[in-house]
Design goal:
- The protein has about 160 residues and is mainly alpha-helical.
- Helices cover about 85% and strands about 0% of the residues.
- The protein is built from 7 helices and no strands.
- The longest helix is centred in the middle third of the chain and has 38 residues, at about 90-125.
């Protein structure tokens, strides 16, 4: 039973939060990039010279995974107690909850952004000169991922006891 209770430490919760930030936002990004990539390959089979325009749209949903990774690094490396196992329980739970906005919003916004990017491939295919309009439309979805990143970062830095 002591082994079981040793799992529920502050450090465990903090590391779990960091892992969820990376896993959820990474899953969303991989799905979003895949959705956009599937549409992009159709465009490229017709006109390979449009690769640069397609690449921009496909890369956009990948940023949410980067945001999750950034929050995970902040959690793991802004407080030395996280990795040495001495983090108080309440701080670990706080880190866990601080990671949730970027993880959850990153997951959903990356998938939605991938869908918008995929639809925007039609602009690249039919009106390449207007392809930046598709980038802007897909970029608007990014707003919510950036807001979630901001909240997660602010929450991490608001947790007391961060070593300077």
């Amino acid at each position: 039973m002591e082994w079981f209770s040793s799992l529920f430490t502050g450090s465990t919760f903090a590391v779990l939060g960091a892992a969820l930030a990376v896993i959820l936002s990474g899953m969303g990004s991989s799905k979003g990039v895949g959705i956009a990539g599937e549409a992009g390959t159709g465009v490229l089979t017709e006109d390979p010279s449009k690769f640069g325009r397609v690449l921009i749209l496909q890369a956009l949903p990948g940023t949410q995974g980067i945001y999750g990774l950034l929050v995970a690094f902040l959690i793991l490396f802004t407080n030395s107690q996280v990795l040495d196992g001495s983090l108080p329980f309440i701080q670990g739970v706080a880190y866990f909850f601080a990671a949730l906005p970027v993880g959850i919003v990153g997951y959903y916004s990356a998938i939605r952004q991938g869908r918008v990017a995929a639809a925007s491939m039609n602009i690249v295919a039919k009106r390449p000169a207007d392809s930046m309009k598709g980038v802007i439309l897909a970029g608007l979805v990014e707003t919510y991922a950036v807001l979630a990143l901001l909240i997660s970062v602010l929450a991490v830095f608001a947790i007391p006891g961060i070593a300077a």
